[in-house]
Amino acid sequence: MSEYSGGKRDMKKVRIGMIGYKFMGKAHSHAYRDVPFYFDLDTEPVLQTMVGRDEQAVKLASEKLGWQSYETDWRRLLERDDIDVIDIGTPNHMHAEIAIAAAKAGKHILCEKPLALNVQEAKEILDAVQKAGVIHMVSYNYRFAPAIQYAKHLISTGALGSIYHFRAQYLQDWIMDPGFPLVWRLRKEIGGSGALGDLMAHSIDLARFLVGEISEVSGMMETFIKQRPIGEMTGGLSATVDSDSKGDVTVDDATAALARFENGALGVFEATRFGRGNRNGNRMEINGSKGSIRWDMENMNQLELYLEDDPRGMQGFRTIDCTEVEHPFAKAYWPAGHGIGYEHTFINLIHELMRSISTGTVPSPNFEDGYRNQVILETIERSNIERRWLNVSY
Ligand code: SOE
Fold first, then answer.
1. Which of 1-5, 165-169, 170-174 shows the lowest mean pLDDT across its residues?
2. Beta strands 12-19; 43-51: pairing state
3. Which of 164, 257, 266, 325 is the most exposed place for a label (fewest CB within 10 A)?
4. Which of 216, 219, 229 is nearest to 197 (CA)?
């Protein structure tokens, strides 16, 4: 059978309104464009309209990224009946207002992570989508690396036995220069939190996906550089300084947390933007009674696996190249050994969204996952303030 057996079919058009056009706007646009290229779907995303407040900038972005039109006010998308999905790729403080309005307008929603600024907002968003009955998905993209999906398969088929430890580090270093400006990601009223919600939220999502629910946490947070010159993000993780005057950094530069899982496993989490030399060091290790796995985003196609049942003398961590047909999502791309990258985690995520819209089933991760993640983030934050262990309650 030909690789192209899906051929050109009558696919239901799913018309997207994308709010935001910088880092995540680019990642999502690329994924919508490429998903039909690799997967046989019943639905086809249409890059209908991109939204941004700066008209000149959004016009240029929408043209370059392949959108049919642009708007400068997201509210206009909600009045239109030629938009099926609202994709929220804005700074975090706008997620709640847009998501709740989109749900009321009956639109399906994809929202960037973390779902909201705090638990209260996250709950309001969850209630709104449940009431409206729309499809909702939160963009925890690293779940969609084939190696992570294969790790899930290994754990759920019992290959690792009972899980005792989940250990994660998410290390970046892009704000270490004290001259790096006070961008939105460093302001609590816009970002919600710093390394905690931006980075540890991803590790928490992997932990919940792979090991299960967290019941108790103890957190420790620090802001190393307390004031910075005023400035703004320009795209990716770059920024410009706009003024000599300084403002207060109101989020954490680094957070560490200990956790207990409901199934008895122990979790150790570390997230920092001060991990010198680590550009996107998103790593985790899981130890079970029969084996262990290790994963590092900067080598994302590889999974290290140790199995205690291997013959004595031959035991040790082996490296699995998760590019074979047995590895979830991998066969949609290239022959074995031809790896994929960061952007493909978003293509796989958009595939899940399209599959869900086509079948009417609940995608994963959805806003319930986004809400639970937010509860854990906020409990870690409170634990740091109160200097004690706290139960996680939903
Ligand atoms: C910046 O720290 C960032 O882009 C995060 O916001 C993303 O969620 C992460 O995937 C990469 O780093």
1. 1-5
2. parallel
3. 325
4. 219
For ligand 1, atom 3, which residue shows the shortest CA distance? 198
**Residue 193 — very low, low, confident or very high, per pLDDT cuts 50/70/90?**
very high
Distance of CA 176 to the CA centre of its chain: 23
The ipTM estimated for the assembled molecules is 0.97
- Spatial separation of the C-alpha atoms in residues 123 and 131, rounded to whole Å: 12
The pick from 140, 170, 190, 199 for probing ligand 1's pocket by mutation, whose C-beta has the most ligand atoms within 8 angstroms, reads: 199
Taking the C-alpha atoms of residue 7 and residue 373, their distance in angstroms, rounded to an integer, is 39
- Tell me, what's the pLDDT at 97? 98
CA of 10 to the centre of ligand 1 (A): 36
Q: Is 344 left (phi over 0), alpha (psi -120 to 50) or beta?
A: alpha
8 Å CB contact between 83 and 71? no
Residue 237, phi then psi, degrees to nearest 5 = -115, 30
Domains with residue ranges and CATH for the chain: 3-141 (3.40.50.720), 144-391 (3.30.360.10)
In whole angstroms, give the CA distance from residue 91 to residue 82.
25
Q: Measured in angstroms, how far is the CA atom of residue 198 from the centroid of ligand 1?
A: 6
Phi, psi of 69 (to 5 degrees): -155, 175
342 phi, psi to nearest 5 deg: -50, -45
Tokens of 99: 């998501």
**What separation in Å is there between the alpha carbon of 23 and the centre of ligand 1?**
9
